């Protein structure tokens, strides 16, 4: 017999040991696969309140022509989810400041300066983790030069930042290429969501709410803040930094329990 390249003598003399080792290996492998498949990358439970699924979230485009195809691709990608659709609408905001609008996500590009970040996603939430508005910014100070000025990286950054405004965190923070835009890899396979992202959205939005924050209006707490949110001094306290230095999260909390949460993709994974 040639099972597992063992000699006939070893198979005869130690069959139970060989089979036990094989069984243990199979059980461990199955456990690892199950753990990986069931891993959660919900972003702290943040989600849009809504009364039914699927719901439609507007992505308000304040982009220059060079960026618009990437937002169109991102919108199409995320709309493949069974629980939500995104639709691109024309925006009216100054891209340099990119002020938020309640009930939707403003998407902007500009030369925000040598501030260390490629892109960021900002969400305004209440104490119940409901998102009331969001902003995506991509920084042309970096994105117009190597190694970031490639279609793959532009798709990656746009897809990831919009994914954060839907309530998703990263699938991986080590730099591994998992075939999703919700990892840190700059590989060509990291431009779009994968099935795990869609599965996670299904879990995040598996319940319904008694109210809605989609297309809603609000002027209280964090939603009414008019600070310069390009400036990291107005992001509040840093609550997370990845070990590889690719990613940071900041929170600024207001007296009514609402907060602004800023997810930052840093420009140092070259």
Task: Describe this structure as you would to a colleague.
This protein has helices at 8-13, 15-38, 68-78, 140-143, 151-165, 195-204, and strands at residues 47-48, 55-62, 84-90, 105-110, 117-125, 130-139, 237-241, 247-253, 259-266. By secondary structure, the chain is an alpha/beta fold. Strands 1, 2, 3, 4, 5, 6, 7, 8 and 9 form a 9-stranded mixed β-sheet that branches.
- Helix and strand content put the structural class at alpha/beta
Uncertain stretches of 5 or more adjacent residues:
1-38
List the secondary-structure elements in sequence, H or E: HHEEHEEEEHHHEEE
Q: Please summarize the sheet with the most strands.
A: 9 strands, mixed
Strand tally is: 9
From the alpha carbons, calculate the radius of gyration and give it in angstroms. 22 Å
Question: Residue-averaged pLDDT, rounded?
Answer: 84
- Molecular shape: globular
Strand content: 15-25%
Give the domain tally.
Answer: 2
CATH architecture of the largest domain: 3-Layer(aba) Sandwich
CATH level-four homologous superfamily name of the largest domain: Collagenase (Catalytic Domain)
CATH structural fold name of the largest domain: Collagenase (Catalytic Domain)
Please report the distance between the alpha carbons of the first and last residues: 51 Å
Percent helix: 25-40%
CATH structural class of the largest domain = Alpha Beta
Number of separate helices = 6
Output the keywords.
270 residues; alpha/beta; Collagenase (Catalytic Domain); nine-stranded mixed sheet; 6 helices; 23% strand; disordered N terminus
């Amino acid at each position: 017999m040639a099972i597992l390249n063992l000699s006939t003598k070893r198979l005869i003399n130690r069959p139970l040991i060989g089979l036990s080792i094989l069984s243990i290996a199979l059980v461990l492998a199955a456990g690892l696969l199950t753990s990986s498949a069931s891993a959660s990358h919900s972003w702290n439970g943040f989600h849009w309140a809504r009364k039914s699924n699927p719901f439609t979230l507007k992505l308000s485009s304040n982009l220059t022509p060079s960026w618009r195809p990437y937002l169109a691709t991102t919108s199409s990608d995320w709309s493949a989810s069974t629980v939500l659709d995104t639709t691109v609408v024309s925006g009216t905001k100054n891209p340099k400041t990119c002020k938020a609008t309640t009930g939707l996500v403003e998407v902007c590009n500009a030369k925000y300066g040598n501030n260390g970040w490629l892109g960021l996603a900002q969400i305004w939430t209440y104490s119940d983790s409901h998102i009331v508005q969001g902003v995506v910014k991509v920084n042309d100070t970096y994105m117009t030069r190597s190694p970031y000025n490639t279609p793959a990286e532009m798709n990656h950054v746009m897809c990831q930042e919009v994914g954060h405004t839907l309530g998703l965190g990263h699938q991986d923070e080590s730099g591994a290429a998992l075939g999703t835009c919700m990892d840190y890899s700059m590989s060509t396979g990291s431009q779009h969501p994968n099935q795990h992202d869609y599965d996670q959205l299904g879990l995040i939005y598996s319940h319904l709410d008694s109210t809605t924050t989609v297309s809603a209006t609000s002027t209280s707490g964090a939603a009414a803040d008019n600070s310069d949110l390009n400036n990291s001094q107005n992001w509040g306290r840093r609550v997370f930094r990845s070990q590889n230095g690719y990613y940071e999260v900041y929170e600024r909390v207001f007296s009514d329990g609402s907060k602004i949460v800023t997810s930052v993709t840093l420009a140092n994974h070259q």
